[in-house]
Amino acid sequence: MSDRKPSEADGAMPADVGAALRRARKDRGLTLVQLAERSGVSQPFLSRVENGSATPSVARLYSIAEALGVSVGSLLGDQPPTGEPSVTRSGAARTLAHSDNTSVGDSLVLTDPTSGTLLTGLLHTMRPGHLSGDTFTHAGEDLLHVISGHVGVRIGEQTYYLGPGDSIHHSGELPHTFVDSPDTADDETIRVLIVTASGHPTSPQQH
Predict the structure, then answer these.
(1) Which residues on neighbouring strands pair with residue 121, listed in sequence order?
(2) Of the chain's two ends, which shows fewer C-beta atoms within 10 Å, N or C?
(3) How far is C-alpha 70 from the chain's CA centre?
(4) Contact predicate 110/130, CB 8 Å
(5) What are the pLDDT digits (tens) for 39-76?
(6) Which of 129, 91, 108 is closest to 193 using CA atoms?
(7) What domains lie within the chain, and their CATH numbers?
């Protein structure tokens, strides 16, 4: 057995995202204006992300990745996948706002893109009454597992109400969003583990 230690996430975020975004965009021969048109994210904001002065929310990151035809995970780091195991230690996970509405909550990035997998793991922490309403549509599949609290997941025209210990697995190509659940207590914290298996390449360097 190899005695090589697994790589560890170090919490870096804005510069890594910006560099990965710039590389993916240029690899596809797109201008910032063209990417803005495809993703629905403004050109000035995309420029700020590339320059490391802004970090996109999870909602915007999904829109940008889908417009580029890459996985969300590939935009979370500037280093190519190594295929080596990657450990994210407690307290070291990178944090993204779940939505542009910062009162919604945060998402911890549990996976490191250098591990080279097709999976992106996020731990969403949300507050009742402040769910974002952002609708996601992307290639691949999602697996959601509710750790605490109660939440509704609207997929297409159907809403599924989930509680602690419940899971749901669905196609990412179906429009999906979080909604409030009638079972949610005002003072509870909603924590949902989300694993996305992307239908796009993991590396932004692929053509």
Answers:
(1) 195
(2) N
(3) 12
(4) no
(5) 999 999 999 999 988 888 888 888 898 899 888 878 88
(6) 108
(7) 10-75 (1.10.260.40), 86-197 (2.60.120.10)
Provide CB contacts within 8 A for 38, sequence distance 6+.
30, 67, 68
Place of tokens 């952002």: 134
Distance CA 138, CA 118 (A): 14
In sequence order, the 6+-apart residues with CB closer than 8 A to the CB of 153 are: 144, 159, 160, 162, 168, 176, 177, 178, 179
User: Could you tell me if 99 and 61 are in contact, meaning their C-beta atoms sit under 8 angstroms apart?
Assistant: no
Whole-number Å distance between alpha carbons of 106 and 119: 19
Rg (CA), the chain: 17
Give pTM, 2 decimals.
0.76
Rounded Cα gap, residues 150 and 162, in angstroms:
6
**Cα–Cα distance measured from residue 185 to residue 50, given in angstroms and rounded to the nearest whole number:** 40
